[in-house]
Design brief:
Layout (H helix, E strand, L loop, with lengths): L12 H8 L5 E3 L6 H5 L12 E4 L3 H14 L3 E4 L13 E4 L6 E4 L4 E5 L4 H9 L15 H6 L8 H4 L6 E7 L5 E4 L5 H10 L5 E8 L5 E10 L3 H11 L7 E9 L14 E9 L3 H12 L6 E2 L2 E4 L4 H4 L8 E8 L4 H11 L9 E6 L21 E8 L5 H14 L21 H5 L1 H14 L16
Parallel strand pairs: 2-4, 3-4
Antiparallel strand pairs: 1-2, 5-6, 6-9, 7-8, 7-9, 10-12, 10-13, 10-14, 11-12, 11-16, 15-17, 16-17
């Protein structure tokens, strides 16, 4: 099933006015005040050009937007902050959810119920007031919904609790036929399975309910070493990993950062390597676990400390303002000595790479275990994720893509056979079967046929309807 959405006609002002009359939120056409702000995404090298944007305030608005898309035979794309948009949405209806940002914490049940527009920073802050923590991502400005529906690889609690999708209790979702459903393990179980891992392919999620965990503090931060010591640090880290408990989550990063005032002085314009840690046990045990890695080389910066969970964003210290970049990620099935040597060759001190960040996250633990209520997350059993990030304007697109491709192509001998959809580049033309594996893809395609047979939700890494 193929579509030429670029040939769809513009939305007429009278059509937009009719839609605006039945929604609480805003309806914006190209040229309207606010249209450019609402179509903006986190990656300044990516542009959305939708036919119309509906800034929704409730599930009824979402239903009206979908009904409008059905009448015009238009695709639908959902956007919160736009950290990972796919395609340009030309001819599409974009549903902007950022006004649906309610966060309600249930201290007794240890759960959160959040609107589709909530950000992780908001959930972390509210949960921390009750001494609780979610399976949040590394960047506080990422939207909860897209991250969770794509699996959700928490760099703080992931090894001890698994994917964020594993702990979703229920979803409110509007399907392609405009019906608002409560989706959980007992009601619409196949849609519940598909949404958790299948990302935006099946419905517009308007609210999520998920588990929180009693983690008021953790021992975490980063150890930064001179880049010239990459080989020593990488070898020590990989040798250390098999001995750590599941309560310790860690990653390794090679950094070539610009000279920006917001960066700590030792890292400005420097080539460095970093080990990041998040340990949920007692701080004294965390210090003991990290101690061997502190002796590998003289650190240029050590931010590892006991901290309230509300400060977890400081561990990775990722940018929170939009910037132009290109990134791609793969999974690794192993990282033996030969693979480590290749990584050193590709991004180490003797390489000519300009890559800002090359990151390896160590997985395992609960990430490998199927949850009590299974879902569509495809990457269990793969022990590492590898991500390459280049930063630069669109004028340098060819160079940026070649730089990241050199890393991933070089590590191809150790790549896994499935992918984490949250780490895919917007324009990667992958057969979805290559993301999920053939058996899981067949089940996803059957769910797609049941809930979105016309493939309305296609501006994504698309699962096509079966048949």
């Amino acid at each position: 099933m193929t579509f030429d959405d670029s040939s769809l006609p513009a939305v007429r002002p009278d059509e937009a006015a009719a839609l605006a009359a039945v929604v609480t939120g805003s309806v914006l056409l190209p040229g309207d005040a606010g249209y450019d702000e609402e179509r903006a995404v986190f990656n300044l090298n990516h542009e959305l050009t939708p036919a119309v944007i509906v800034v929704v305030e409730n599930a009824t608005d979402v239903q009206a937007a979908i009904a409008f898309a059905v009448r015009g035979q238009r695709p639908v794309l959902v956007k919160t902050t736009g950290h990972q948009m796919v395609g340009t949405a030309r001819g599409a209806v974009v549903i902007a959810t950022h006004r649906m940002a309610d966060v309600v914490i249930d201290e007794v049940r240890r759960t959160a119920r959040v609107g589709a527009g909530a950000l992780w920073a908001e959930v972390v802050a509210e949960a921390a007031k009750a001494g609780l923590a979610p399976l949040n991502g590394s960047n506080p400005t990422v939207g909860v919904s897209g991250y969770t529906l794509g699996g959700g690889l928490s760099p703080t609690l992931g090894r001890s609790h698994g994917y964020a999708a594993d702990h979703v209790l229920s979803l409110d979702a509007v399907t392609a036929d405009g019906e608002l459903l409560r989706v959980d393990a007992d009601t619409e179980p196949e849609l519940f399975w598909a949404l958790r891992g299948g990302k935006g392919n099946f419905a517009v999620v308007t609210a999520l309910e998920f588990d929180l965990f009693p983690v008021p503090r953790l021992y975490g931060g980063g150890l930064y070493f001179p880049g010239e010591r990459m080989a020593d640090v990488l070898r020590a880290w990989t040798a250390w990993l098999p001995r750590i408990p599941e309560t310790m989550t860690s990653s390794f990063a090679v950094l070539r950062l610009p000279s920006l005032p917001e960066l700590p002085e030792p890292l400005r314009g420097a080539f460095s390597v970093s080990l990041r840690f998040a340990y949920t046990g007692p701080a004294e045990d965390g210090e003991r676990l990290v101690a061997p890695l502190r002796t590998v080389a003289p650190a240029i910066l050590d931010t590892v400390r006991d901290m309230p969970y509300s400060e977890v964003a400081s561990i990775h210290n990722e940018p929170t303002e939009p910037l132009p970049y290109y990134e791609r990620g793969v999974m690794l099935r192993e990282l033996p000595e030969q693979a480590q040597e290749k990584l050193i060759e590709l991004v180490g001190p003797e390489s000519d790479t300009t890559m800002w960040i090359a990151e390896v996250r160590a997985l395992g633990g609960a990430w490998d275990r199927e949850p009590a209520v299974p879902n569509a997350v495809a990457t269990r059993g793969l022990p590492y994720s590898l991500l390459g990030v280049e930063v630069g304007p669109l004028a340098q697109e060819t160079r940026l893509k070649k730089s990241v491709a050199a890393l991933l192509d070089g590590m191809r001998p150790w790549q896994g056979d499935r992918r984490l959809v949250n780490n895919l580049a917007p324009e990667e033309a992958l057969d979805a079967a290559a993301i999920y594996g053939p058996e899981r893809y067949r089940r996803l395609a059957a769910a797609k046929q049941a809930y979105d047979p016309g493939n309305m939700f296609r501006v994504n890494h698309n699962v096509a309807p079966a048949g």
